[in-house]
Write the structure tokens for this entry.
Amino acid sequence: MQSIRPGRRRTKLEQGYWGFILIMPWLIGFLIFKAYPFLSSLYYSFTDWNLFKGGSWIGIQNYVTAFTTAKNLKALRVTFIYAFMTVPLKLAFALFIAYILNFKIRGVGLFRTAYYIPSILGGSMAIAVLWRAMFKNDGVVNRILTILGLDNVNFLADKTWALFIICLLRVWQFGSPMVLFLAALKGVPEELYEAASIDGATSGRQFVKITLPLISPVIFYNLVTQLVQAFQEFNGPYIITQGGPRNATTLISLIVYNSAFSEYNVGMSSAMAWIMFVIVMIFTAISFSTQKKWVYYSDERGDK
Amino acid sequence: MKKLIAVVLCLVLALSCTAVAVAEELSISWWGGDSRHEATQNAVAAFEAAEGVTVKTHYAAWSGWEETMSGSFVAGNAEDVDMVNWNWLFSFVDENGESYFMDLNEMADTIDLSQWSQAMLDACTVNGKLLALPNALTGRIFYWNKTTFDQAGVELPTTYAALLEAGKTFQEKLGDDYYPLALGAYDKMILMVYMLESKYGKAWVVDGALNYTVEEIAEGIQLIQDLEDNHVIPTAQTLAGDGADSLDKNDKWITGKYAGVWEWDTSASKCQNALAEGQEFVVGEELTDLGEFKGGFTKVAHAFAISRNTQNAELAAKLINFMNNEDEGIRARKSEYGIPASAKGLALCKEEGLINPTVAEANGKILAWCSFPLDPKFEDGALKNTDGVYQEVFEGLSYKDYSVEEAAQVLYDGVTAVLAK
């Protein structure tokens, strides 16, 4: 029988060392695939880097160009419109459907799955192509308008409508926020509704006074993630409208792509990518800094 | 049991390593339509059988291809043999001025360079290095859907005036959806240069400088605008609303509502094959009332090059030679890359009737007519791509964002800026 030797206690330093070893695979991946491209793009944004020929330091010239070129300014404006049209619509729609699916209705599991499917399909090229086919002049949407006796709309060529259908593609993919809302709605205690009903609160008042405050952490989470996603949108405008008509759907992401791979101007492309990053950072910071005012966390004490 | 699984896994790994070591591997990339994909796959399969090697293929449509390949060359993982656009030979150059393609003069023992004319070799020679071997020479020409013209009771146009008349007749007899011709922004640009060269007898760009004044360009743009105003071509809005990537995929071309295209002769078959049954596709004539000169340019349609990073240049050169100069390769590719530039390829295709007669007719007309050279920067991405200057000018004109004079100024400034880069 082997004797049991008393094990040496691990020092705090050794414990940290083992933790470091264990996260090493992630860390290496992060440094190579995230940190290095991230920092090198920051460097490129201050150069006139050509995809093939390299480049040299030009200071803030790319940023000056970004904010003085009409095309880039328009792309900034369109990206803002896109994000501020898409995110509220998507969150409202996701919450609306989640609210309905929270009722005990027959076949609710089937509906939940069906409504989630667009989120799985939505990002693919095939859906973007399908979207274009639906909204073209003789597509299914215009055929329905004809049946209803309404005038046809040239969705893909009209500057306003084109942006709207790009937004609609993203709104249609409301499955992920919907599932989160659904989980949050399930977490709202029944007793609160019962108590409110006894006090004579209408269901609308209950929704505003009980449901919304209690699911506000999930609203906050969805808001931040959807904002980040919206500012990075690429597939929809790239496939459906190629940024047209008249740059009405040219988002910053398209400028980033076209600058780098059509015009080989990696410096300008990196500058635009960093502008996009800063914008997303600002909105995320605003969301976080204002959350004290409107997000309710049940584990926080109100009397501190 | 665990030991057994481990042994099996090791054996599988060892076998796959052996397989990799044994089979010599090559890769090739190209772009095109379905018929070209099939022809190239057949040629590659014949090469694999003849040489006992494996060739990996990478191919797609043109849309987005340039962006994909530029990234591949910079990253150093482009295929060994690559189909290249002519202007890539001038733009795919690294910071040391070195091309991303290898000098094929070094492969003269493997590739029979004598099959190409000196002029064609010169067109692909940059700084004394032969960077690619042309598949074909190409130019633009009209193709008409004769069936629709017959329905409208209109003769196929041979003059600009007749084209304008055809627009009105189409609208009156067939309806608002019918147009004698459809042009995208880049098509309009090439047609405008053709018209200007026909009138003024000078090339678009000479010695790296734009050879036309703003006023002259405005005349050309006016001719394009008149086509739109006279219902000869659909507006940019109508084309966008059609929701098609390219004209050959547009329902209105397929069903004959758009009855003409202005296309490269090397791309004729994709337009022809797209037509619905019962539509007659014919090669048009040059327009004769534009001026006293024969406008239009010819260029190397596309070419095959070898990546400078290839590990197997000898085999890559063999594949290029096989497709261009050996019977099996020539038979497989037929005229899917245009009328073969290789003399042997052309002779065999003619002898065995492998050339699509439409492609042959179009190529013959273009080579007999077009007399002007093309500057490589004409196809620069900043000008030609979907967010480029040509799109800005002609879409802006169609959307009435620019007057003809303003559009001419935007085009002049845009082209001048790119030429100065």
About this structure: Chain B is about 50% helix and 15% strand. The first helix of chain B runs from residue 2 to 22.
